[in-house]
Design goal:
209 residues, mainly alpha, Hypothetical protein af1432, Methane Monooxygenase Hydroxylase, Chain G, domain 1, 11 helices, globular
Length: 209
């Protein structure tokens, strides 16, 4: 809790409260608690990687505020979140230059070939968001979200998406996509735990143990 408390303490309280309201009704895999975990990881990694925390903290706070709108319209939530940034930050005296930087950090957390993370702040938010998808938290999130969208826990149908399929096609590759040294170090233990879990999971599904 130290990292998230430190980060939140550096942000305007009313801004934090406003951001939190965007997560009302969000599914448990993408809720306010996910946001807080990403903020904490940004704080931890940002200190180690000498990031501009005045840019990174508000970017972490606001990076997912567009998710509710994404559910309604299908537009990328990073695009929506970035678009909302000026109206939220101008009242707190953020400069145009800072707002532009914060928007770019938010946009880059959804990696696209035309917009890869380049600055250290962009890379840290990207890494923090992905780290929350692996390890024990990642396992909990993938099973939670499978329940939200009514996917089966397991299936013999190779075309049916399941938590195991998500691990094999996405989660197992995340540690190789991280940018910062600190994030890669954090990912090692998380990835090891996750691999062991799914190895056991496959054995139990097959009735081997």
């Amino acid at each position: 809790m130290e990292y998230v408390k430190s980060a939140i303490a550096c942000l305007p309280e009313s801004l934090v409260n406003t951001a939190r309201r965007f997560f009302d009704g969000q599914d448990p895999a993408h809720d306010w608690e996910h946001n807080l975990r990403v903020i904490a990881l940004c704080e931890r990694i940002g200190r180690e990687e000498s990031a501009d925390m005045d840019i990174l903290r508000p970017a972490a706070l606001l990076h997912d505020i567009g998710r509710a709108e994404e559910r309604k319209t299908g537009e990328c939530h990073a695009e929506i979140s970035a678009r909302l940034v000026p109206e939220l930050l101008v009242p707190y005296g953020y400069s145009d230059g800072s707002i532009t930087c914060i928007q770019q950090v938010i946009l880059a957390h959804r990696f696209r070939k035309e917009r890869p993370p380049t600055t250290v702040e962009e890379q840290i938010l990207f890494d923090a968001d992905k780290l929350d998808s692996i390890g024990a938290i990642g396992i909990a999130r993938v099973f939670t979200y499978s329940g939200v969208i009514a996917q089966p826990l397991s299936s013999d149908d190779p075309h049916q998406h399941t938590p195991l399929a998500e691990f094999e096609w996405k989660l197992s590759r995340i540690k190789e996509r991280l940018f910062t040294k600190t994030a890669r170090e954090i990912a090692e233990e998380r990835d090891t735990f996750m691999v062991l879990f799914f190895e056991r999971w496959k054995k139990e599904i097959e009735g081997e143990v």
